[in-house]
Amino acid sequence: MNDAAELRELYQQLLERLERNEREFRRLGRAVWKVQEDERRRIARDLHDGVGQNLTVLKHRLHELDAALPTQPAGLRDTVAAALALCGDTLEDTRELSRLLRPPILDDLGLEAALRWLVRSQSQASGARVDLQIDALPELDGELQTLLFRVTQEALTNAAKHAAASHVQVRLQRQGAALSLEIEDDGRGCDPALALGSGGTGLGGMRERLRLYGGRLHMRGAPGAGLRVSAQVPLDYT
Q: Would you say 227 and 191 are in contact if contact means Cβ atoms under 8 Å apart?
């Protein structure tokens, strides 16, 4: 074998090694993320079934106490009423935290139902109009569904928290052998390069998660001109 052939052989071996290392890196990254999602699911269930149930019982007991109290003195009844209000608010906060950590609807009914719940919740919380368009999708495994849900959740949170958008459009469709997700808002906008480099908006985390599945994140926008976040993920990411 001459020198040129040896160099080509070494180059090919190096490329194959790099590809194996990249596949292994992505596999390990997905495994770590799956553990994190499993932990979110456990904590969400504990909050809902443990803390949430205890608060429900406490609220019921306070109602019983309120009903048994004499009308006088009024100060004692006011104290119980304040405790009831605090208990009710804490119960709602606990349920909301549980849903945001890992909405049961994602595991029970799938991605489309979870996205419709998400845009409805975000619209009610932020006051912005959020439209959702989902085309016919192939059957997706749990990991892809979780990935697309988290990317949408992060982008909607960003549009409400940092961009103060009044209208957000979410589109999910199949494009050949990949899925395309777009979230476009009319908010303050930003410099995409600065936003990705800041590490403070979650956009960098979205990009890294997509990379683990062979996906890519694109952003288009400018200060004062809204932001468009696009994600493409291959259906066969292994």
A: no
